[in-house]
Amino acid sequence: MSKPPKLSLASIVAEATPKPARPPGAEIVTLDRAPASPAASAGTLKQRAKQMSVYLEPPVYDQLRDLAYAERAKMHGLMLEALDLLFRQRGARSIEQILGERPR
């Protein structure tokens, strides 16, 4: 004799949920959803961005941290500012130009 199938919570709930009665000849129509705006689908910075590790010597890290504290800024923002200065110095497009909008 074979074992009875294992019950899952989903199957128990599906069996317990009453099915709505449809009149004869009724059909189910699915509506196409409008595509989300690019800003809404972009998600958070963490979801959109690529992560990169930077290894800093302790004195360099401490100085960056101290600058961020003194300016009441985040270290990430200071790193982006440094990259923007590097791009400008090398004749490359700025972060604002690359993104096509003002960075936050």
TrEMBL record:
Q: At the top level of its lineage, which domain of life is listed?
A: Bacteria
Instruction: Name the InterPro entries for this protein.
Output: Antitox_RHH
Q: Where is the Antitoxin-like ribbon-helix-helix domain?
A: 50-94
Q: Name one Pfam family in it.
A: Antitox_RHH
What is the protein name given in its UniProt record? Antitoxin-like ribbon-helix-helix domain-containing protein
